[in-house]
């Protein structure tokens, strides 16, 4: 018998939005784990990326999903999986969606590779490949910025007294 968690995996693998919603929006609410991992450690999000399941990706990302969950087999997070997609436009869209959802471009798999390091050869030199690498680099740079690294205009800073110029 299929459990609700296995139904989520199947819906992600087959891009079946109706099936996914039958679990997510069930009345009365069904118990499910959006971060359920199969025997390989793949979650519905891993499969949605691998199979380019564009219909179910956004509803999965709207849940409290672990966007950086790593599978058991090779330690790939969904962002790694998305970077391995051959279709460049789909790959770039998947990566952008994951980054917008907070996926870390710095996560390393079991081989010690970050997602950008999986974009090699022709995939890295094409215009879409270059755009992907830039997207990942910018996201990593933004993640590395701390509050102390951000320059503020005087108008953005709370008035804690006279500025150096006024004193």
From TrEMBL:
Positions annotated as ANK repeat: 40-72, 74-110
Keyword terms of this UniProt record: ANK repeat, Repeat
Pfam families: Ank_2
An example Gene Ontology biological process: protein K6-linked ubiquitination
Molecular functions per Gene Ontology: ubiquitin-protein transferase activity
Record-linked SUPFAM superfamilies: Ankyrin repeat
Protein name: Ankyrin
Protein source organism: Malassezia equina
Native organism taxonomy: Eukaryota, Fungi, Dikarya, Basidiomycota, Ustilaginomycotina
